[in-house]
Design goal:
With about 290 residues, this protein is mostly helical. Helix content is about 65%, strand content about 0%. The longest helix is centred in the C-terminal third of the chain and has 26 residues.
């Protein structure tokens, strides 16, 4: 076994330690631990989650409520999606999907609350809708990162360092954004948890070597948070490559490139949204370098 990528639960990690297997924790799982960490520390967000959960449960368990919601969807012209998302603690991005589906069915839900004569404490109010909108914006980067890092047929280890640094910039508490106080507090909490979960990632050979060997990240100064860390990673990768070559004492045959380009895990536009800042910086760096040589 070269490397095990596993759940970050203590029992799983301890089992791998006992087996003396090289290991790293699942990156996507850590993204969602950061989301849960922030949610559990905000009373407003927890109250919103409880409301959404209660509404979803009622429309699924009560045949009458389910029928009314479907009728409301038809009245406002919503086709296809007419059910809410249930909350499942262990399901990644669950809260994000709950908020997103609720916003998609907003017009139908407002009509549903009126038809069902729901109490104001049970129905979603204007503040709840505003918070839902904030939460969708807040958790979308984590959702996109989770989807991209969860590919089944391609390796994603080399993306971890640039991905984590993109997320840390996105959740920087000093970022100027037009959002509510609750959203700002949540953004800060997510950023803190991401820093904790991925502490030392830029000094970990497993991650740094994978990134350096990936030709997509040739400009290491854009990938790492400092030039010194980038330089150290490059030197370590070179030394490890030399050591491995000497160990094998054989030439490394060039492998055939795969013709399979059909692996698509998400639409290109979504990933462009996530990598937008990185790609822009890369283009500026390339243009500046070209101008300097001319």
């Amino acid at each position: 076994v070269v490397l095990a990528v596993a759940d970050n639960a203590n029992d799983v990690q301890h089992s791998l330690d006992l087996a003396k297997v090289p290991k790293i924790g699942c990156g996507s799982h850590k993204f969602n631990l950061a989301a849960q960490y922030a949610i559990e520390r905000s009373e407003q967000v927890k109250n919103l989650r409880s409301k959404l959960t209660a509404i979803s449960r009622k429309t699924k368990k009560s045949s009458g409520a389910k029928r009314v919601l479907k009728e409301c969807c038809k009245k406002v012209g919503i086709k296809g999606k007419s059910t809410l998302i249930s909350f499942v603690k262990t399901r990644w991005n669950c809260f994000y999907h709950m908020c997103l589906r609720s916003l998609e069915l907003k017009d139908a839900l407002i009509l549903y609350f009126a038809d069902m004569k729901m109490d104001s404490t049970e129905a979603l109010n204007d503040k709840d809708w505003a918070l839902i909108d904030d939460m969708i914006t807040l958790f979308r980067p984590l959702y996109l990162a989770t989807v991209e890092m969860s590919a089944e047929k391609v390796t994603t280890l080399s993306k971890m360092i640039p991905m984590v640094n993109l997320l840390l910039r996105s959740y920087a508490s000093n970022t100027k954004r037009d959002e509510s106080k609750t959203a700002k507090e949540m953004r800060k909490l997510i950023g803190e948890k991401l820093k904790s979960c991925f502490y030392g990632i830029e000094e970990n050979d497993t991650y740094t070597n994978a990134t350096i060997y990936d030709p997509r990240f040739k400009n290491t100064n854009l990938v790492f948070t400092s030039k010194q860390k980038a330089s150290n990673a490059v030197e370590q990768a070179k030394q490890d490559a030399v050591n491995e070559a000497n160990k094998q004492n054989m030439d490394v045959d060039e492998s055939d490139e795969s013709d399979d380009e059909n692996e698509v895990t998400q639409s290109k536009n979504d990933f462009d949204e996530l990598w937008g800042d990185f790609d822009t910086s890369a283009r500026k760096s390339k243009t500046a370098s070209k101008s300097a040589t001319e």
